[in-house]
Protein 1
Amino acid sequence: MIPISIIQLTNITNGILYESNKKTEKDLFIENISIDSRKKQKNSLFIALKGNKYDSHFFVKDAIKSGAIILLLNQKINVKFPQIIVKDTRLAMGKIANWIRKKCNAKIIGITGSAGKTSVKEITASILSQSNSTLYTYKNNNNNIGVALTLFQLSTKNKYVVIEVGSNTFGEIEYISKIINPDSILINNIFHAHLDKFKSIKGVSKEKGEILSYLSKKGTGIFNLDSHDLKNWKSKFTDKQNIFYFSLFKKKNCHFYAKNIKTNINNVQFDMHTPIGILDKVLLNIPGIHNVSNVLAATAISISVGANLNHIYNGILNSKPIKGRLYPIILKKNKFVFDDTYNSNIGSMISAINFLSSQLNMYKVLVIGDTYELGKKSIIFHKIIANYVIKSNLDEVFIIGDKYKIVNNKIIFGKFFKSKNQIIKQLIQIINKKEKISILIKGSRKMRMEKIVKKIKEHFLC
């Protein structure tokens, strides 16, 4: 990271410095920032965060033992050790991150949307890493804390920074966007998600669209012509800013699209049209036609900051599946489990069903758990999924969850199970019986559907 002096840190956070002296203020520079008191880092700043169920102020002494040379706290503690006191350490974290961002010349990319953010982020980082030093969000740390932690790692060596921007309530994207001030932004799509807070698809659109207000003056906005709210979003653009459009298939005014798509059980091959040329027979070693759309998004982002076709081709080729996101697990020859258990919303559930339905000459089993955060219309949305399943080319559907139970009592679209253990037992029997089988497992984070994946793997692979 970029070193920060104690005086700079105090000014950045608008804090009050205690237990310091002139020599400390002059000679001490922060080289690392941590929110984990157990993490050993020399010359580090420890930021004590306070939540509903935790308070890191209780672990300050552990942080000092781990290498902290100064503390950022909400309240002064009775320890003779340099400490900066602020009203809110979480907000102070954002101020430090924004200061670091302004000190670097790296191109900052902000990626948001209802689905596919992490996949696009990983593919984009793979492409840009072919060209130059690239920093990107670790796993899915896309909230205000995760974004700050990513920016804390910024150095003058980084040419690109790829930031995943998530939100489950109004105001989060605006806050994060103020911190990162992106040079390029992507709104990958909008689906019915987090409706307990956003209430409607209009609310989702409003929140995602906040990132546009903080795009740099000559920046680029990238939009999915297959899922958008362009009528409202375009009003936030100026004449000096650029716009790229992408779509899975060619459409009017589309800059990026695919042709000759060939899907296989664990990869996709296609031709890709871009404003700087055509790439033939692009190979993506990640399954699902919806991931072609994610590749188009990543390509548009990469070209907006200077990537060439060679970087793009090799970056896509080197991209790998992400655990929990349609992650393929080979149990035996012609026997697959697809782990799509990280989370679920209406759009990602439909994409998962489409993927499984497309598996030719395979016995297809869908295992689904409830989707959360759909607000007052939750049961209606579960009915939509049930009807979609009925129309799909699936052999069996295993269901668990209170919401699906209500739906399944009215619309018979699969077998309902009371426990995951019942599902696991049934799956083991089917896997042993069938010569060719694809099983896809999906549900919201709270459903912990990965427990089913784990038990199946243990039975067949251990």
Protein 2
Amino acid sequence: MTPPTWQLHDPTFEADGLNPALAVSPWSGHRGFAYDWLAFMRPRRVVELGTHYGCSLFAFAQAVKDLGLPTELVAIDTWEGDDHAGRYDDSVHALVTRTVATCFPEVPLQLRRETFAAARPAFAPGSVDVLHIDGLHTLEAVTADYEGWRDAVAPDGVVFFHDVAPDTGYGSATFWASLKAHHPHLEFLAHSFGLGVLFPRGDRWLRALQEAGATPWLSLYRHRAEARLFARQLADRDAQLAERWAVMQRMEAMVADRDTALAGQARLLEERWAVMQRMEAMIADRDAALAGQARLLEERWAVMQHMEALIAERDAALAAREAAP
């Protein structure tokens, strides 16, 4: 039998088209390794405990779709949330369901909406080649998840644990620290909240990985994830700058419109001031004309009074003449 070879792929994760947030989710930095791991191991069944928006699930599904793997995928989640992920409504489950129907209709993929304990009897002992544990991250919860599903893992099967980086402060990190001391393992603790890869029932696939010469390349996944996250952050920053520039341009246009309006108002005020000045000049001319008419009337009144005095003198003289003997 030809020994498996480790290949570095650079897939396009189609689910990001429906949910762009997957590209920056807490699990996103491990998608490249998960894809390559499925290509390497070609498992019969992958069971995931805790899916939420499906970042890890759709990485597995992309590998199955692209590479034509003989792999059944099972995602188990209540899609109600928990104390770490927060509580959410049915829109999350609806988006995951729509993504499966849109991007992976030919992939053998089950979405089981139930608790991990309720789903456990449906899986025979040794029937799960890859078990991914990513539920509630308390020590009690992750211990119960592992203990409850451990016998479902196939001989030489693999268990993925998310959120095992010490700096998360989660109980899952404490559990991983104690568990890895007793089993062969790989771990990625420096990015994306940490991913532990445990070989609890035989190290066949770890030895195959080493024999394929892949071990020195594992650090590449961290660097590639960090580089892509940095590129995404730069793109987001560029988008923010573009939005701010657009806002500034709109503000400049508003200021220009305001200045134009103010200039128009200033011209209108100047025109009204000119009209007022002309009106004041007309009023002054009218007042001057009225003053002239008043003086003319006074002069005429004086003439009339003088004429009345002359008439009175004349009448007095006539009366005196008539009275003379």
